[in-house]
Automatic annotation (TrEMBL):
Pfam families: Creatinase_N, Peptidase_M24. Residues 169-375 form the Peptidase M24 domain. Signal peptide: none annotated. This is Peptidase M24. It comes from Mesorhizobium amorphae CCNWGS0123. CDD domains: APP_MetAP. It comes from the Bacteria. SUPFAM superfamilies: Creatinase/aminopeptidase, Creatinase/prolidase N-terminal domain. Residues 16-162 form the Creatinase N-terminal domain.
Length: 393
């Protein structure tokens, strides 16, 4: 279904901010091809048929949003043929729609034709290299020999770093749903319940609450292995449950602790050490604080702790994906540069803050929390269950 150019709908993002970032990055026309950035530019829309997969036939799904700097009347969405029905029910804001594709090459060809039609065949075109298949890239490169292809990844990450109120609400709901699901799962699990069974129960809890389950990393007892297995929970053992799920595409990613029985004094002290590092990080979360200052303060508290030798601190941005701007730490553990360490935190940035203890005998003890930056400090999402949560009898 090719829809002839029509009226511009309500633009679901800050157009002036996007235009400014494109100008700064030297980009005239944007070709967004990742699921998360096309979703962002379409105001939260993601085609359900390809929500959990990309491959179909001999190719794969490749959504494309074409946006010209300062020219929303030239914007287009290129999608799968079945998305014409989506447009009939809830029209896309872009004045042009090509719901006509089954693979990468037809999508890339339509993107090229649209760029040519709007007179930008020799422009500076922003692409997402990590999310543009090689066959589509080759087609674009050959079809637009006079164009300069520019990596738009950083520009788009900067765009998404400052969340709207609507995005913050989705992140809050996602965190609340994940927290409720983890606490219910801990309470459900009994002596003899296996890791595989606990993970499957968490999947049901999240799904029943309206979240989309993505993963669960789980440990029992003294083990640091977080993969599913037949290992069973035993009385007196700790449980760590770290889950990621999403609500309308926005990520909830938290970790809470369980105990089968009552925690002894040592366990109480160990979790308190973990929380002390978390609280140190939170104390520096505020608009205007350098990201690196927050990191160094928490790391300093950890270095002074008696558990420093086997404990790690990490913080990262999150939103539509689990690691996005602000990037605060370099290669720790995910391989990217901490490009935001020397930049101030900004209002409506969202951070995941996590402290992980690999105790040699008591096991894997961790807290992971989600906070949104405010002018005066922060707001925490899913702020409960941060102590020892009791498993079922």
């Amino acid at each position: 279904m090719n829809i002839a150019p029509g009226k511009i709908g309500t633009i679901p993002f800050d157009q002036a901010r996007l235009d400014g970032l494109m100008e700064e990055a030297g980009i005239d026309v944007l070709l967004a091809t990742s699921k998360h950035d096309t979703q962002y530019l379409l105001g939260g829309y993601k085609f359900i048929f390809f929500a959990a997969m990309d491959a179909i036939g001999h190719s794969r799904y490749l959504p494309v949003v074409v946006y010209e700097k300062g020219g929303p009347d030239h914007a287009a969405y290129i999608g799968n043929r079945m998305e014409g029905a989506e447009h009939q029910n809830n029209p896309f804001w872009t004045p042009t729609l090509h719901a006509a594709c089954w693979g990468t090459l037809d999508a890339a060809n339509l993107a090229v034709e649209h760029v040519q039609k709007i007179g930008k065949a020799g422009a500076r075109i922003g692409i997402e290299p990590a999310f543009l298949p090689s066959d589509a890239y080759t087609l674009i490169r050959k079809a637009l020999p006079d164009a300069k292809l520019v990596d738009a990844t950083d520009m788009l990450e900067r765009m998404r770093a400052i969340k709207t109120d609507a995005e913050l609400e989705k992140l809050r709901i996602a965190s609340e749903l994940i927290t409720d699901s983890m606490l219910a799962t801990i309470q459900w699990a009994r002596e003899g319940t296996t890791k595989t069974e606990i993970i499957e129960q968490l999947r049901r809890e999240e799904t029943n609450r309206g979240a989309h389950f993505e993963y669960c990393l789980l440990t029992l007892g003294s083990s640091h292995n977080r993969a599913a297995s037949p290992q069973a929970w035993k009385r007196g053992e700790v449980l760590s449950i770290d889950s990621g799920g999403n609500y309308h595409g926005y990520i909830g990613d938290l970790c809470r602790m369980g105990i089968l029985g009552e925690p002894d004094a040592e366990l109480e002290d160990l979790l308190a050490e973990v929380d002390a590092v978390q609280q140190a990080a939170f104390s520096k979360v505020k608009a205007g604080t350098l990201g690196g200052d927050m990191i160094s303060h928490a790391e300093g508290v950890l270095r002074a702790s008696r558990v420093a030798a086997y404990t790690d601190f990490f913080a990262h941005g999150m939103g539509l994906i689990t690691h996005e701007a602000p990037f605060l730490m370099t290669n720790h553990p995910v391989t990217y540069e901490g490009t935001y360490a020397a930049k101030p935190l900004e209002k409506n940035m969202v951070l995941s803050v996590e402290t992980t203890m690999f105790h040699p005998t008591r096991g894997f003890i961790k807290l992971e929390d989600t906070v949104a930056v405010t002018d005066s400090g922060y707001v925490m999402f899913g702020d409960r269950g941060r102590g020892w949560n009791r498993g079922g009898a």
